[in-house]
Model the fold of this input.
Amino acid sequence: MTAAPRGGPLLSLDTLVRLGREQRTPDVDPPRRLSVPDGMTAPLGCDAVAVPARLGPLVTPRLPRLGCVYADEAHWWWLVPADSDYAMDWPAPAQYVTGALVPATTRLIHRPDGTVPYTPPIPLYLALCQAMGTTPTWSRPISA
Done:
């Protein structure tokens, strides 16, 4: 028989797993993958960029092409090609979401003409920086 560690009984792995599951609370609004509207294709995969809803109307007029835009009460979401975060530091409070996983309450508020759902990521990045008063990372001075 193994002695219990100081301070309490010895717990089995099964007990620890069960206790961990009991502590979890189910998501009230579990995330889902944004769906591309019928008739559209996403050959490059999809990620999403979100900003607080109050900033959405400031960003959209600055874009040369607007792809699919989704919204919930708290955020506006733009579909971008997968891996659009490569070598880009999206400005806070923007959130880059791999796989376009968003709250289930998100709904489509803009559908572009054509079959491609993407907002071009570099113009979106620049529009976000401008709306947020942030300098793009590639324009910032380098310190030694």
User: Anything to note?
Assistant: The mean pLDDT is 84. The two ends are 61 Å apart (CA to CA). Residues 53 and 76 are 5 Å apart (CA to CA).
